[in-house]
Every structure is written in structure tokens, then in C-alpha cells.
Amino acid sequence: MAVAIVICFDWIIINGFMMMPKRLDRETFLFLFLLSSLTIMLSMIYSAGELYFSPTYRDFPMQDAVAFHMNRNITFPMLTLVALNLWKSGQLWEKLLSCLGSYVIFLLFCRIDPVHTTFKPIGISGLTTYFSCYYLFVLVALSLFTKGNKKRSIQQRSSQ
């Protein structure tokens, strides 16, 4: 049942992302998707240490393990892309609304279903701190990546 819920939720997120106007280019989306997926996987490995490194992993049902990995590799990075796409809209209220909305969705999703998101329940203060640092990191990466793209495009135009 967990896999079906995660697939349905992912389908809604991906369709919403496909329908919204894109304010970033394909390279930037790919970079941010891979960066956010790696960041979530590596930074939350401590909370999922039992899942990866103990014999209880063999007792963990396969559907729960699939739902856990889909959340970390599809759901959370896609929610991040939706928020960052809305972040680039330019108006302050849309930026704040997109960040606050995705932030609340992340927190609710982790609190409602900790087995398929963090494996072990983490307190709300820990999740708040984690997602605040995560968003700041991804926003800094977005600004650095877009600055690098602007410099590269200027160099290409000047060399022609």
C-alpha cells in the first residue's frame, strides 16, 4: 500500500511540475534534481543507518524499502524543483509562498509517514533544522549555478 501511495503522490507532483511554466533551463533542473537527491541520500544516512547497515534490513518489507527509496530519490527532489521553479518567479509573495508551502509539505510528509521518509522518527525541531539547511544549500547552489551559466554564455558570445 505504501508504494501505491508514493507512486500516486509522485505522479501528482510530476504532472504539476510538467504543467507549470518553466523559469529555469533543462541543465539547471537536472543539476538541481541530482544535487538534491544526493544531498538527501547522504545527509539522512544517519537516520536510516539501521536500514542500510543492520540485519533488520532483511526483515524490512520490500514494498516499504521501495517506498523509502522513491521518497528520497523522486518525491523530495521533485518537490524541491517545484519550489525552486516558483522561487524564480520574481515576486516576493510567490517566493515566500512556494518555500513555505513546500517546507510544510516536507515536514508533514516526514511526520505522517516516518518509516518511508526518515526510517526512524525525528523530532519536529530536527526536521525543521534539516530542511532549513537543505533549502539554504539548494538556493545557494542554484544561484552559483545560474551565475556560472551566465558567465559561460557571455564567454561564448564574445568568442563568436
TrEMBL record:
Keywords recorded for this protein, A-Z: Membrane, Transmembrane, Transmembrane helix
Bilayer-crossing regions: 28-46, 66-84, 96-116, 122-145
The protein's name: Uncharacterized protein
Organism the protein comes from: Sporolactobacillus terrae
